[in-house]
Amino acid sequence: MIDNTENYFDDDALESLERFETMLKHNKPCYFDVHEFENLVDYYLEDHKLAKATKVSELAIQQHPSSISLQLKYAQVLIGRGEEIKALTILKKLKQIESTNKNIYILIGNIYNILKKPQNAKIQFDIALNLCYDDKEDLLFSIAASFEQLGLYEMALPYFKAGHKLDAEDPEVLFEIAYCYEKLQQDEESILAYKAYLDLDPFSDNAWYNLGILYNRNDQSLKSVEAYDFCIAINDKHSKAYFNKANALALCDKFEEAIKSYIEYLEFEDDHASTYSYIGECFEKLEEYDQAMIYYENAIKEDEKFDDPWFGMGLILLYQDKIDECLVYLNEAKNLDDTNPDYWFALGSAYSRIPDAQKAVQCFREAINLDPYDPTYAITLAEFYHQNSKEEAAIDVLLESLGCCPEDVQLQNNLAAYYMLAADANAAEHYLRKAMANPENKIEDIFIQFPELENNNKFKQIIKANQ
């Protein structure tokens, strides 16, 4: 006999199901009324038995050819079988017979969504809503969910919000509103909606988790940590909460606490390589380089094709001025991912210390080409040229970078300094004036980077004249 039928049927309906199963087994025709057929189709659809649902619906139409409700059930079965066009043909005929039946429009709307015609679906759904007088909240939720499943959050949101107006105490609707806002990158609205949801259901670990993601995305790392703590307190098996909490703690420079949370995360997940690498990075930030190297090595043992730990080990060796060793690791990281500008930049820094000017310039240049909107790379290459008494080359690099970052104050300051060192006071004054127009510019810092200008009276006069 079929399992779990009591979850779907009362005694009378169960008797209908047994009669139908017996009929199939012995191939003997049997009569069922319309209501019985409807229950049978619903049961088999719920149980994902499309073949039997098809047999029921076809027999139902044979026995009751004029029943609108059974033809609707047959259309549902066809949709389940992926025969949307055939179902649509039936539904359009039914619409001409019974134009006020909202279920016809709902099914047509679902078909249009399946066919990736959401605007057509919306027209049908809105007609169904106008014909709906009872349980409107349920229909609104169903329509919104159909758009949400397609990733059409902007279309789903108004229906969820309309449902919320009808029942402000429905937590499920509030959660979906928050989720849609989150997907639409409307973070403030999403945060407010999740908070409202948590007022109704404070023990939802998923809501606290999503709230933590939003806080972290909006540079509110401490609030993010708090949200993840609530999530973990409710569900101490929510593995991703440990991982995200660790990331948030690292962003707050709370590296020791971050390490603890990463280690807790290791108990749940098999993705040890990246977690070991993150732990290594935390130890690196704490300048506990021996511990950092251990975890980076563990990460490489887990996955030797993972570039992050190779880069981390290379950086530590660079800090320790072990250039020959660091080049091995940095080159391996670069070989694994040659599109990461930081890898090329670190290689440029390493080659500049040997010194191997040609390779240093080549690597710095590659970093700039990969990310021309980070002025750090150009500023460092210009400094390398300056150290080698190539002021004109330094100026050219910074002018090129200024084309991508025209408002960057440090680029303007450094250009002023290099022009002054090249004895072009007019150009120096031009860039100093632009830099000093920015109230956040700390012009005195220029003498830290360029101590040789400390005694340059002309340069100081230009600064004083523009203060």
From TrEMBL:
Q: What SUPFAM superfamilies does the database record attribute to this sequence?
A: TPR-like
Protein name per Swiss-Prot or TrEMBL: Uncharacterized protein
Q: Where are the TPR repeats?
A: 171-204, 273-306, 341-374
Fetch the PROSITE patterns from UniProt.
TPR, TPR_REGION
Q: Name one Pfam family in it.
A: TPR_15
Q: Which UniProt keywords apply?
A: TPR repeat
